[in-house]
TrEMBL record:
One Pfam match: CT398_CC
Ranges of compositional bias, category Basic and acidic residues: 61-87
Protein's name according to its UniProt entry: Zinc ribbon domain-containing protein
Location of region: Disordered: 61-98
UniProt organism field: Nonomuraea mangrovi
InterPro entries named in the record: CT398_CC_hairpin, Oxidative_Scav/Glycosyltrans, Zf-RING_7
The organism's place on the tree of life at top rank: Bacteria
Domain CT398-like coiled coil hairpin: start-end pairs: 14-194
Residue ranges annotated for the C4-type zinc ribbon domain, each copy included: 204-238
PANTHER family per the UniProt record, alphabetical: PHOSPHOLIPASE C-BETA-2-RELATED, SCAVENGER RECEPTOR CLASS A MEMBER 3
């Protein structure tokens, strides 16, 4: 393949721009914010599940409390009714009076026990409610930390996009100065090796960093200036410059 030395040198500019694009793509994939956001999303999901569990527990206790309070009311109403009967003086038989008094006493004990139950549920409910509040605060804090990391990620991505667009624009400009067959070879080699062309610098291929043998250097010296050369080691296009050492 033949191409003017100036066109061959443009391949080095192209390779540099392609490396810049690769570095930007690498930066995009490895932004520290991506790992942070991932970790924070896991924590958020865990806390959201814990909030639901705690809210369910608090809701169950609220219903339990209502039920226990209604049990207290039922017993109190019965005791009040019995007390009214006792106070009315309508129960006169000593046996009935004694039975009524003993029922009232028993209802009062029962009411006391049930009120204890209500108090115990209220304490548990208070603890459950404060657990809900704590978990919601933690969940919201993680959400806000993640929001901040997302903002930083978006800022970094926007910057990378801007740089990538600049590199792509410059690359299209350079590519138009390279003949189609040389560009196609470069692209093929870039696909295979990541970098399609390298400078011959001081007798060394800058693609694979191998110093060329005297025989190879003699072959290169003898080659016409417009001959497209390849590195024998890495197969990349080898571009001659004034610093090539020939
Ligand atoms: Zn090489």
């Amino acid at each position: 393949m033949k191409a003017a030395p100036a066109e061959q040198k443009r391949l080095l500019d192209l390779a540099e721009l392609d490396s810049a694009a690769d570095r930007l793509a690498h930066r995009r994939r490895t932004l520290p914010e991506l790992a942070e956001i991932d970790e924070q999303s896991k924590q958020f999901a865990q806390l959201a599940t814990q909030v639901i569990a705690a809210e369910t527990e608090a809701g169950d206790l609220a219903r339990e409390q209502t039920k226990a309070e209604s049990d207290v009311d039922t017993v109190r109403t019965r005791a009040e009714r019995d007390q009214k009967r006792l106070d009315s003086g309508m129960v006169t038989s000593p046996k009935d009076l004694s039975s009524l008094q003993s029922e009232i006493a028993s209802l009062h004990r029962r009411q006391g026990d049930l009120e204890e139950v209500v108090l115990e549920i209220m304490e548990r409910r208070e603890a459950a409610d404060s657990k809900v509040t704590d978990l919601i605060a933690k969940r919201d804090e993680i959400a806000s930390t993640r929001g901040a990391a997302e903002d930083r990620r978006d800022t970094a991505l926007a910057e990378i996009d801007k740089e990538a667009a600049d590199v792509a624009g410059r690359r299209s400009g350079v590519a138009t100065e390279i003949p189609a067959d040389l560009l196609a070879l470069y692209e093929k080699l870039r696909g295979q090796y990541g970098v399609g062309a390298a400078m011959l610098h001081g007798g060394r291929c800058m693609g694979c960093k191998v110093t060329l043998s005297i025989a190879d250097m003699n072959r290169i010296k003898a080659a016409p200036h417009d001959e497209v050369l390849r590195c024998e080691e890495c197969r990349r296009i080898l571009v001659r410059t004034p610093e090539s050492g020939i």
